[in-house]
Design brief:
The protein is built from 21 helices and no strands. It is mainly α. It has one domain. 54% of the residues are buried.
């Protein structure tokens, strides 16, 4: 099927967004000083002012239909529930117990390997790379202070593990965005994604083990309560079993809240409700971003911008393999521009879906590609939140961490190899296309 060439000028709202977001970061030196939601609002307003041939009322209708898309609304609900679960579990001590349990079983001569593995587990449980880094960075600094291990290496291990979970967790905003934009199922994407990045995790652990062999430190083993870790385990098991994600998250909130009330972590029901509310509030910006970006993309699409991008990106694409490479390039460039892997997937996702449909790329694979390559660059850019947070705690330059950032690089390499060699082999009969009305 021959694509329409579209209208390149319809992409101007994207230009406005990137100029505001990146330009302010370059000028101020802080890529997070200009609120991203303000940049999206201004870009959306520009989109609505374009195409004078259409009535404003028509363009507003197009915008609201895009913003209120069933997939987008479901994504928003999942974001809010994921935030609530993460906060309720954190409030009753699940993070501390997980870290302390892991440190109690890690051999003293494999501390960096242990920290990497701990970060992998915590991030896949919490669904947030930032939360993982905040929890573990002080421990990484402590290990470096007691050994001759570079603090930059310690921070790289923590960031690598954090990106492992950011890429794979069932409650990670990047996973949710990738799954919903590609119309597939969470567990199906996980299986494909996991087999692609597993070699990267193993190689990274081996590299850290070889580099830090013989370095030992005495890490104080704090107390932990195995019961507090059960909500994380329950969410992972239930999600892998294919339970509806809304039920998984709701059940996790109830489970974690009940444990917190019983053991006294929450003094009363109101304290639990406040924690739940704070978790929801923490995801409000992301939820609004998803809504506004979807509305703006729909207007851009209506004006011919998406057709032009499709023509531009796929004009030299001759095969499904080329289509997958174009998706990887799209989300990578978007992530470099926005310094946010979730936003990059939300922007590139609809375009990637169109490419996937045209070249018959399995949605499980396209969702995995979006998530893998967005996390690759998010874990490498020195102006990304993850690098800045870890560098801030360690009082070092983000650039010093780059030389040890093996995992983000390796998942990108594994992603490319998976595209070039068609791995993993997917059974066409197992391919699942999720209708908008379905819930994951």
């Amino acid at each position: 099927m021959e694509l329409k060439k579209g209208n390149p000028f319809a992409l101007f709202p994207f230009v406005v967004f990137l100029v505001l977001f990146i330009g302010s970061g370059i000028v101020t030196g802080d890529f997070y000083q200009f609120p991203v939601i303000v940049a999206i609002i201004i870009a959306s307003a520009v989109a609505l002012m374009m195409n004078s041939k259409e009535k404003l009322s028509t363009k507003i209708e197009v915008f609201t239909k895009g913003a209120g898309n069933a997939n987008v609304m479901l994504m928003v609900v999942i974001f809010l529930l994921a935030g609530a679960f993460s906060q309720v579990a954190r409030g009753m001590g699940a993070v501390e117990s997980t870290v302390n349990l892991a440190l109690s079983v890690v051999p003293q001569n494999l501390l960096i390997v242990g920290v990497f593995i701990i970060a992998c587990f915590i991030s896949i449980s919490m669904g947030t790379s930032m939360g993982t880094i905040v929890a573990l960075a002080p421990i990484g600094v402590g290990i470096s202070e007691q050994t001759d291990i570079s603090v930059a290496l310690s921070m790289a291990a923590i960031i690598g593990g954090a990106m492992f979970g950011d890429n794979l967790s069932f409650i990670s905003d990047t996973t949710i965005a990738a799954v919903r934009t590609q119309n597939t199922k969470m567990k199906d994407k996980f299986k494909v994604n996991f087999f692609i990045v597993l070699p990267a995790a193993i190689i990274t652990a081996v590299l850290f083990g070889v580099m830090t062999a013989g370095a030992e430190a005495t890490v104080t083993n704090e107390s932990f309560n195995i019961v507090k870790i059960l909500p994380y385990i329950g969410v992972i098991v239930a999600a892998l079993a294919g339970v509806n994600v809304l039920i998984v998250l709701s059940g996790g909130i109830v489970f974690a809240g009940a444990i917190g009330l019983i053991d006294g972590s929450y003094e009363n029901g109101m304290a639990l409700i406040q924690a739940l509310g704070n978790g929801v509030i923490g995801m409000e910006d992301l939820a609004m971003l998803a809504i506004l970006i979807s509305g703006m993309v729909e207007v851009v699409k209506h004006n011919g911008g998406i057709d032009y991008l499709l023509h531009l990106v796929t004009r030299n694409v001759k095969s499904p393999k080329g289509a997958q490479l174009s998706m990887a390039g799209l989300v990578s460039l978007t992530n470099l521009s926005t310094a946010n892997n979730t936003i990059s997937i939300l922007i590139a996702g609809p375009l990637a879906k169109n490419i996937a449909d045209q070249y018959k790329v399995d949605p499980r694979k396209s969702a995995s590609i979006l998530d893998i390559f967005s996390c690759t660059f998010q874990g490498l850019i020195p102006y990304g939140a993850q690098m800045l947070a870890a560098a801030g705690v360690a009082s070092i330059s983000p650039l010093s961490i780059l030389q040890y950032s093996y995992y983000p690089i390796l998942i990108g390499v594994c992603g490319l190899l998976a595209i070039l060699f068609g791995f993993p082999r997917l059974n066409k009969q197992e391919e699942v296309h999720v209708e908008a009305k379905e819930v994951m």
